[in-house]
């Protein structure tokens, strides 16, 4: 059985003209995992995500550990990875002064970009970046949303925690990820419509979490509507039927992944 790697994914939200919107990336087709698929910003935990020196505002690691069913070290890594990956892949930083009163308003300048690149190359850790800027990680801006585990038969397996977060006032998500060839804001219902017309392929966790977002009219409702804690891990099985390939969740929910093309 392939070893599980801890990972974090962030559903970055904003209130747009058509309603609630989520920031989505289309991974480049050459990627070894989920190439060509639409996904959220996120990725695997880095060893330095567990640095205890990271300034922190919001629910402590022990509280996140209870939500995710893990130890405090892993919980710290997951929250830090969520913040780090959101900055690396969307240019959005969930951080602010240690008093927790505000969020850093703009992280798009050349000096910020140099530090983002240093994060990507692992020349700089998130703790070092925040310390250099006199900032604290804002764990209070994140909400737990889902917990998915890649099925055992897959060659790359992730134990992924999904978070939701609002786009901070004054910041803009930017298409800066070298792992994506397209990025932008879309309503959850709009993204699912593109899935069904064949223009936006996705993996089961993305499909299901977008469906969970559809009922929420705005960001405030989505942040307030996080599921009950602790989160139960979801690991699907798969079935091939005449009408397409389906992912079957533990509660019996069926998600169609491939829609047959017309004859």
Description:
The chain is an alpha+beta fold and 263 residues long. The protein has a single domain (4-231), classed as Nucleoside Triphosphate Pyrophosphohydrolase (Alpha-Beta Complex). The protein is built from 7 helices and 13 strands. The strands form 3 sheets. Strands 1, 2, 3, 4, 8, 9 and 10 form a 7-stranded mixed β-sheet that branches. Strand 11 and strand 12 form a beta hairpin. Helix 1 crosses helix 2 (72-90) and helix 5 (188-196) crosses helix 6. It starts with a strand and ends in a 5-residue tail after the last strand. Keywords: Hydrolase, Magnesium, Manganese, Metal-binding. One of its GO terms (molecular function) is metal ion binding. Residues 3-208 form the Nudix hydrolase domain.
Please sum up the structure shown:
InterPro entries: NUDIX_hydrolase-like_dom_sf, NUDIX_hydrolase_dom, NUDT19. By secondary structure, the protein is of the alpha+beta class.
Describe the protein's topology.
Blueprint: E1 4-16, E2 19-27, E3 38-39, E4 42-44, E5 56-57, H1 61-68, H2 72-90, E6 95-96, H3 110-120, H4 126-133, E7 136-138, E8 142-149, E9 157-166, E10 180-186, H5 188-196, H6 204-213, H7 219-224, E11 237-241, E12 244-248, E13 254-258
Parallel strand pairs: 1-9, 5-7
Antiparallel strand pairs: 1-2, 1-4, 2-3, 2-10, 6-7, 8-9, 11-12, 12-13
Helix pairs in contact: 1-2, 5-6
């Amino acid at each position: 059985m392939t070893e599980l790697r801890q990972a974090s994914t962030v559903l970055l939200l904003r209130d747009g003209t058509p309603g609630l919107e989520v920031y989505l990336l289309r991974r480049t087709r050459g990627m070894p995992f989920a190439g060509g698929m639409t996904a959220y910003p996120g990725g695997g935990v880095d060893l330095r995500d567990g640095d205890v020196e990271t300034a922190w505002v919001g629910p402590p690691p022990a509280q996140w550990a209870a939500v995710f069913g893990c130890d405090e070290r892993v919980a710290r890594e997951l929250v830090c990875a969520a913040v780090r990956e959101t900055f690396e892949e969307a240019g959005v930083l969930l951080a602010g002064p240690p008093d927790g009163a505000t969020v850093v308003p703009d992280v798009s300048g050349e000096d910020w970009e140099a530090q983002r690149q240093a994060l990507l190359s692992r020349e700089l850790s998130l703790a070092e970046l925040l310390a250099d800027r006199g900032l604290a990680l804002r764990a209070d801006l994140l909400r737990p949303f889902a917990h998915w585990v890649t099925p055992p038969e897959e060659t790359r397996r992730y134990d992924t925690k999904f978070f939701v977060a609002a786009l901070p006032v004054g910041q803009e998500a930017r298409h800066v990820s070298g792992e994506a060839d397209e990025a932008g804001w879309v309503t959850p219902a709009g993204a699912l419509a593109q899935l069904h017309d064949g223009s936006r392929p996705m993996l089961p966790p993305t499909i299901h979490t977008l469906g969970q977002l559809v009922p929420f009219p705005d960001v405030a409702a989505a942040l307030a509507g996080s599921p009950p804690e602790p989160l139960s891990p979801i690991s699907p099985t798969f079935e091939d039927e005449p009408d397409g390939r389906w992912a079957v969740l533990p509660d019996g929910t069926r998600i169609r992944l491939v829609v047959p093309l017309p004859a």
